[in-house]
Amino acid sequence: MVSPASIGGSRILLRKLREIMETGGQAQERLDRLVSMVAATMVADVCSIYLTRGAFHELFATQGLAAEAVHKTRLKQSEGLVGLVAETAQPLNLADAQSHERFAYRPETGEAPFHAFLGVPIVRSERTFGVLVVQNRVQRSYGEDEVEALQTIAMVLAEMVASGAFGDLSGLAEVEARPSRPDLLQGRAFSDGICIGTAVLHEPHAPLGRVIADDPLKEEQRLDAALRQVRSALQEMLDGDPGRISGVSRDVLETFLMLAADPSWEAKLKHGVRAGLSADAAVERVRGEHRAKLNASRDPYLRERLHDLEDLDNRLLRALAGVDGASAHSMPPDAILVARQLGPAELLDYGADRLKGVALEEGANNAHAAIVARALGIPMVGSMPGLLSRVEDGDALVLDGERGEVRLRPEPAVLHAYKQRVALRSARAAEFARIKDIPPVTQDGERMTLMLNAGLALDVHHLDEVGAEGIGLFRTEFQFMVSETLPRLEAQTALYRDVLEAAGPRPVTFRTLDLGGDKVLPYVTAEREENPALGWRAVRIGLDRPALLRYQLRALISAAAGRRLRVMFPLVTTVGEFDEARALVDRELEWRQSRGGKLPHHIEVGAMVEAPALAWSIPDLKGRADFLSIGTNDLMQYFFAADRGNPRVCERYDILSPPALRFLKRIRDDADAAGMQVSICGEAAGRPLEAIAFAALGFRRLSMPASGVGPVKKLILSLDAGQAAKAVTRMMNAGAGASIRAELTEFATKNGYAL
Ligand code: PEP
Ligand code: MG
């Protein structure tokens, strides 16, 4: 007997497996031969295959358990040790199975005398098809090599199931090899837009034909070549220009290169090919291990490293498949990228012109990739657990970045409905393009100013595209969030200069760093706070750690040398805080002047009105602040005491309700009395119905996401601001606090305003 624990043993095992795969015969017969071959090779008393059918794991074949139990023993999804292996998608190695709390005794199997248990998942592309088990009478722990050998067999088995090699097996149709039914996944909308296209998996997998090597020596050479290719590509990136996105620093690439050079990673891969796997299958097996660990880990640091490792595995697989990195990934013209999660650099690597959309299993609205997707105008939906196990390369997909859902393999009727929605959206887009250079003047002659909210250099091209008149809010923290390390003074200056240059004569209002709350930096370990939205954030950090803020102001002043500079501070709560922040601007101006540096020709310093306390301090800001900008996202969160990021409460209260509108009116009146310019720059400014209310309350400057400019411009052109002011005032004074949304919609529709 050759032990599978040796390389030679593994090869023999794989050769036998291949014989079983390649010889004909009934599927049941082949499964039976497989279990007896595995039991014999691994010197196990029992070898069993459980396949998952619907809600059960069914015993499909066994050597060593009672033959009558086959197709009779069915364990519920999470029942017994088999259920545990399927649930965790990880091997389970027990010297005494019966003393495990999850052990479920099934008398019909006759498994009472067996103590040692080793179960591995039969898994492929995140989908668990079942569990492969070996058992022994004696109490013993299986060695690492035995676990690996069994995993290899399970991998081949998974490929056989997936490729339909057991198609004639009764009941196997329910073990869905490749999902074919339409499916709907509800997630979260990270970037607006709708697209219809073809799924392209960011993480490819090795096809069946390549699992077992024809010539192990050749496979090792292929692996060596691919490793060299991945390492040298990383080295090239490191030697070249890593600044394709301002944040991808040398540090990240260096860490990556270090991981790629790690001998234990290479040793694991080599072990796989020497044991008889193809190079692709060896990488896939190592990737499976990384994934299983990733799924089980809650430690953010470890997860990040495992994600890096998985990324390297993917690069290696692509190199083996003969495609060089994401940029050469052969893709259909209507590709919708499907991934667990994505870094901003990876997304940029694919490029906006080659992707119609992105679907993520994980991800978050504030995650860097989502920010980049919005900047590039690529629809993105994320936060869909189970996505990767339900979609296959080449599946038809509809990605709805409006509602935050993905439809897999849609029925013709659904597809038809979506095609109509896409057509409607493009007709609307064409209409917005037509009016983009028309000044936003209402029917009764009120001139509005529509500006853009931006955060990356990439966003600035939207200015021309949508016809905005400037940037009303530039969120400077985005640069910090997409960086792996604190951006240096030069990098900050370069970005601000690029933005000012791209904007030309149009004004840009830079908002100083707004960190804290939900915006955390990976490289700054912040203390956990019970209540981050009410905690140490925004200008509070800037004033307590003035070095950071002063550096930023220094960069802004130097970037705007000889130009106009507009700066504002987020979450100012008291007049004293504003004075302190403004004093830092003065200090930086003096500092630059003392060194003979050129100054901006004009400087305006403003405050964001986000804290209700500041909203009640406007008369005192007279002569201190040059302008105000209302951040309705935060102002409403504090006004209604409802967390803007908590789906349970964030839509519970409406800005279009009398208390909120009266509050905004009050701010408007106080700003007028103090002679201060005031704008609105929260997300609400980009919604036509809200824009009616803001215009009605007397606001003339709105700053919004790029997608809002067209719809709001169209609304403004159709609006009678005087008539709307009367109606909104009436609704605001008559209401008992409830939302006026429905009433305002009816009024707007009746009067032909373009909503
Ligand atoms: C706001 O709070 O409305 C705002 C514009 O700032 P942010 O969304 O970046 O907090
Ligand atoms: Mg804010």
Description:
- The protein has 755 residues and is an alpha/beta fold.
- Helix content is 45%, strand content 16%.
- The protein has 28 helices and 22 strands.
- The strands form three sheets. Strands 7-14-13-9-10-11-12-8 form an eight-stranded mixed beta sheet. An eight-stranded parallel beta sheet has the order 21-20-19-18-17-16-15-22.
- Helix 11 links the parallel strand 10 and strand 11 (357-360).
- Helix 5 (216-239) packs antiparallel against helix 6 (250-260) and helix 27 (721-734) packs antiparallel against helix 28.
- The longest helix has 24 residues, at 216-239.
- It is elongated.
- Residues 242-249 have low confidence and may be disordered.
- The structure holds phosphoenolpyruvate and magnesium ion.
- Residues 570, 610, 631, 633-634 line the site of magnesium ion (MG).
